Structures are given as C-alpha cells and as structure tokens.
C-alpha cells in the first residue's frame, strides 16, 4: 500500500466497483475471503518499458493484464474465477487509474471474473501484476504440457503472428494513436474463449498458450512430454496481413517466433483432432513423434530454426 495521502480514495473510487459480489469478503478488508474450491492459481506481470510503452492506452494494458492470466488458466483447462490486482504507479500518474480500471473492468466482464483485492504502491514506472484464481473442471479434464503422445496431432486456435506484426507496426511507422487489427491483437489479446469451451469436451492430451512464440512454446510441450513436435509451416493459420508480411520478408519468423498471440496449442489423438478441426475449433499444423525438440518442415524439408527463437526476458 502506498503511503501518500489520497490512496484510499483512489482505491475506493476505481477498484471497489470492480469488487466481487460472489465472495463473502472482497475489496476493503485486510484479505478477501473466498469459498473453497479454487485449485488453480497463476500470476503474470506487465512492466512499462518491457511489456508495454508508457504512452500506450492504459485501458488496453489493464485489459491485457487480466487476459494474459485468464489465458494461463485456460491453457490448464481451468475456469477463471477471481483476480488479485497489484499496481505500482509513478508519481503524478494517478489520474490514469480511471483508464486502467476501465480496461480491467472490460476484461472482467468479458471473461466472467471479478477482483477480490490487490495492492497499490508508488514506484518509478507502471507495473501491473495480476494473480488469477480458477477452478479445474474435473480431474480428467486436466490439461498439462506433459501429456503429448507419439501419434497425436497438433492443433492451434486462431491465427499466429498478428501480435508480433502489431509490435513491428508500433515500433515502426504506426503512431501509438492509430489502431490496426494487429496492434489490437498485441495490446488487447483476443483469447479463443468460445473455442476453448468447446475444446474442453475433447480428449486434449497436452496444451499450452502460445505467449512466447510457437516454436518456443511447442518446445515446452516437447520437453515436458519427452517427445518431438513436427510442424508444417504451410499449414500455419495466418491472417492476410501476416501472410503478406511473411512473403515480403521471405521468412516465417512472425508466426514461428512472434509472441503474445495467446492462442492455444493442443495435441490430441488423431480421431479427436480431426473432429475438432472439422468443427472449426483448431487448425492442424503437425504431429507428435518419438524423439525430442521441435522440427518445422517447409515443403517436407526441415527449415533451420533460430537458436533463441521466441521471447525470453533473461
Ligand atoms: P493493507 O495495507 O492492510 O494490506 P491495503 O490498504 O493495501 O491493505 O488495501 C486495502 C484494501 O484495498 C484491501 O482489501 C486490498 O485488497 C484492496 N486493494 C488495494 N489496492 C487494490 C487494487 N489495486 N485493486 C484492488 N483492490 C485493492
Ligand atoms: Mg491491512
């Protein structure tokens, strides 16, 4: 909690309205009290200068801070329920809290979660940390990175590379005030919520959300499951904008290494995978076999993968 005067007023003004009505004690006490039944928890932080530029709309940043956590719960097959919101804000920036809280509220409404509490502190730059709490649907619907089996097919929801193209646009010629499909994909991830709900009825062996780039996240499934993931670059689902950017660059870096798409990468036994693809839930982009690591094929031949593909902080 920050010590400067007025902080209570800020919290009451902007965050009490986000408080949960479905828990016995929400924002306002020393701790929230929530019913038992929570069995999933995750945390993700957005730091100004690292994950977003301080001039970006804080409405989008607030939305995204909630969305990236909801995405982590979805990747586990867990229903998002409640969030804790820890904020650090620079001196003189409290007037932007209304923008931020508007974005948090939009995400809460969209994803069906509410805020149980949080913390507010003063610091050198904006830092937004969300902890999300969720409930697993059942022990057999437990999705993990470790469940991929040789013979599984690999599917992905939505399209890949849009957020990375949005970042290129923002760092390049597009001024921050202009929004495109791609800058919105980056700043306000469109999580595959309806698709995810439908996928819960399928026999998903392994799942991860594609946050750090397809190759890197596929690598996490490969390592956790002790298998090899083989992907075909021609099959990757691409928007028109990403497809033409790839053609212009003469490489597939945007969908292979671009982060922050927040789509779901899943492996399923073939009959289930074909059924899910036919239902329009996923695009089939490869298969699982014995071995290790990730191979990406173009016209049937492996392409050389970048050593440090995808996003890493350290
Ligand atoms: P304490 O200092 O006793 O830990 P605080 O004064 O930090 O408590 O917080 C008072 C209440 O306001 C708590 O219920 C806390 O969860 C809530 N709160 C503080 N900051 C936020 C925030 N950014 N978002 C939501 N709730 C918050
Ligand atoms: Mg207290």
Layout of helices and strands, plus pairs?
Blueprint: H1 7-14, E1 40-47, H2 58-75, E2 78-89, H3 97-111, E3 114-122, E4 127-136, E5 153-156, H4 162-171, H5 181-187, H6 193-199, E6 206-210, H7 214-225, E7 228-232, H8 240-249, H9 253-257, E8 263-268, H10 270-278, E9 283-289, E10 293-298, E11 301-302
Parallel strand pairs: 2-3, 7-10
Antiparallel strand pairs: 1-4, 2-4, 5-8, 5-9, 6-8, 7-9, 10-11
Helix pairs in contact: 2-3, 4-5
The structure holds adenosine-5'-diphosphate and magnesium ion.
Write a structural description.
This protein is α+β, with helices and mostly antiparallel strands. 32% of the residues lie in helices and 24% in strands. The protein is built from ten helices and eleven strands. The protein has helices at 7-14, 58-75, 97-111, 162-171, 181-187, 193-199, 214-225, 240-249, 253-257, 270-278, and strands spanning 40-47, 78-89, 114-122, 127-136, 153-156, 206-210, 228-232, 263-268, 283-289, 293-298, 301-302. The strands form two sheets. It has a seven-stranded mixed β-sheet with strand order 6-8-5-9-7-10-11. Helix 3 (97-111) links the parallel strand 2 (78-89) and strand 3. Helix 2 runs parallel beside helix 3 and helix 4 (162-171) crosses helix 5 (181-187). It is globular and about 65 Å long. The model has no long low-confidence stretch (mean pLDDT 92). Bound molecules: adenosine-5'-diphosphate and magnesium ion (MG). Adenosine-5'-diphosphate binds at residues 1, 11, 15, 27-30, 85, 87, 115, 117-120.
